[in-house]
Design a protein that fits this description.
Elements (H helix, E strand, L loop, with lengths): L1 E5 L4 H4 L7 E10 L2 H12 L12 E3 L27 H6 L4 E4 L5 H10 L2 E4 L5 H5 L2 E8 L8 E15 L9
Parallel strand pairs: 1-2, 2-3, 3-4, 4-5
Antiparallel strand pairs: 2-7, 5-7, 6-7
Keywords: Lyase
Protein name: Fe-S-containing hydro-lyase
Family: Belongs to the class-I fumarase family.
């Protein structure tokens, strides 16, 4: 059964999700990879305001390729999530509800997900062209100098994902 979710993804919307559930997400999500996460951490250390509101936010670990003429975005497949594990617990603690990527997460991330009643979802690696068809708008909102690793605001329509780690800590990989 497919579960349709609309952002923002509040605790009420994700608390009933179970590891292994297939979902689609419609609404606004943000992109961020390694370099953007590092900058977010530096901003927090300096007491600066972040360029995105993390409350109930979804961050997709992706560095989209340039759009071909007539397209909103290029290929948008997931990045390996463990590369963001040094930063993810703090972002969950600040209100991020869901991260989306591919691959395993470390125990500190799992603990942060449970502590904050969040979720980790996986997208299909190698399906970047397919996933890009679910993205109806894309704009850079921070760190433009990072190119593909800038933070983008994406408007998505039925973006496919699978719940990997649910709010209770059940992990699909285990």
């Amino acid at each position: 059964m497919m579960i349709n979710l609309t952002t923002p993804l509040t605790k009420d919307k994700i608390k009933g999700l179970k590891s292994g559930d297939m979902v689609t997400i419609t609404g606004t999500i943000y992109t961020a990879r390694d370099a953007a996460h590092k900058r977010l951490k530096e901003m927090l250390e300096k007491g600066e305001t972040l360029p995105i509101d993390l409350k109930d936010a979804v961050i997709y670990y992706v560095g989209p390729t340039p759009a071909a003429p007539g397209n909103v975005i290029g290929s948008a497949g997931p990045t390996t999530s463990s590369r963001m594990d040094a930063y993810a617990p703090q972002l969950y603690d600040l209100g991020m509800s869901v991260s989306i990527g591919k691959g395993y997460r470390t125990k500190p991330v799992l603990d942060a997900i449970v502590r904050n009643q969040g979720a980790y979802m996986v997208a299909i690696g190698g399906a970047g062209a397919y996933i890009s068809q679910c993205i109806t708008a894309c704009k850079v909102i921070a760190f433009e100098d990072l190119g593909a690793e800038a933070i983008h605001e994406l408007l998505v329509d039925h973006f496919p994902a699978t719940v990997c780690i649910d709010a209770k800590g059940h992990n699909l990989y285990e």
